[in-house]
TrEMBL record:
<dbReference type="InterPro" id="IPR036849">
    <property type="entry name" value="Enolase-like_C_sf"/>
</dbReference>
<dbReference type="InterPro" id="IPR029065">
    <property type="entry name" value="Enolase_C-like"/>
</dbReference>
<protein>
    <submittedName>
        <fullName>Muconate cycloisomerase</fullName>
    </submittedName>
</protein>
<dbReference type="GO" id="GO:0046872">
    <property type="term" value="F:metal ion binding"/>
</dbReference>
<comment type="similarity">
    <text>Belongs to the mandelate racemase/muconate lactonizing enzyme family.</text>
</comment>
<dbReference type="Pfam" id="PF13378">
    <property type="entry name" value="MR_MLE_C"/>
</dbReference>
<dbReference type="InterPro" id="IPR034593">
    <property type="entry name" value="DgoD-like"/>
</dbReference>
<dbReference type="GO" id="GO:0016853">
    <property type="term" value="F:isomerase activity"/>
</dbReference>
<keyword id="KW-0413">Isomerase</keyword>
<keyword id="KW-0479">Metal-binding</keyword>
<feature type="domain" description="Enolase C-terminal">
    <location>
        <begin position="154"/>
        <end position="339"/>
    </location>
</feature>
<dbReference type="InterPro" id="IPR029017">
    <property type="entry name" value="Enolase-like_N"/>
</dbReference>
Amino acid sequence: MNLSIRRLDLRLKEKFKISHSEFDSIAQLLVIIADKEITAYGEIIPVEFFGEPFDKAHEQAVKVLSVYGKEISGIQTVSDVRQLVQKLSGQKYFNCIKCGFEMAMLDYLGKANKKMLWELLELKEPQKRKTPFTMPIMEGRSWKSRIPEDASLIKIKLGGLTDKDYLEYVKQDKSRDFFLDVNQGWTIDRLEEYQEYLNMDNVLMLEEPVKPDKKSGLAPVKKFLAKTPLFLDESVKSGSSAVGFAGYIDGVNIKITKFGGLLQSLEDAGMLKDKNLKLMLGCFLESSLSIAYAYSVSGLFDFIDLDGATFLKEEPFKGIKIHNGEIVMDCRGYGIGVEYE
């Protein structure tokens, strides 16, 4: 068996901006597990915002191959994968590293056993799901014409100079539903200023409007939300980190790579459901490999937000698509189910 890592540079169709970051390309790593009959893939997605610089992630990936390569070559069950990821957790590897290697190993096991990932994990087959069209902060650029006519659900990125225009659009367009995502880009004063827009019937959630205060947490935020559910994203990287906010939030955005892999995400999702929290399955800017990986477990989530690959200029994987605002697998390959082009 041959194990390798390849740099994956993904260019975007155009600049993608949110309140705390801006991208025109993303640097990732591809984990490849190959033998004579099977080639399996995993995607390592370092996120600088979460303290995962690319160069350090690359160093860690090389170290994993050196230290754990023999164990990776010997995996035979999902339990083997879980145990190896737990070892990586004990050695303080980045969550993106754990996720990328886990992804490749589960893809390999699925292909070796001629099972799709959801079958390998003994889950129900994922069905078509509505996923939002994401509108980034488009300062100085036209934006209304970019919204697809068939998009019934839109995620609006706030925390920039376009806020008032975007919120007025939400107020006027009663034919669509909206997720509002501020990515910690507001202050409490700004939240109060926009309060009237946040409680409209077509606003399904408000995501991470401010960075939680260390003393008061999110208590000041909830008083401005009469009925709109409050979700967290940036503030939580695990189920345990979300539990402390449980009295003030309604839901959590679980991103597989942020939580350290699919197996850990499923475990944390169960814990958060026990706290009566709603769950959204989200993504970063990433290829269809990671999107399909997440989609395999989408039936366990209340909402999904998996359009991250649609912003790529060149897509290295094929097999999953978004049509009429719904995401669906476009092929029936084993493992994760997508093909490397």
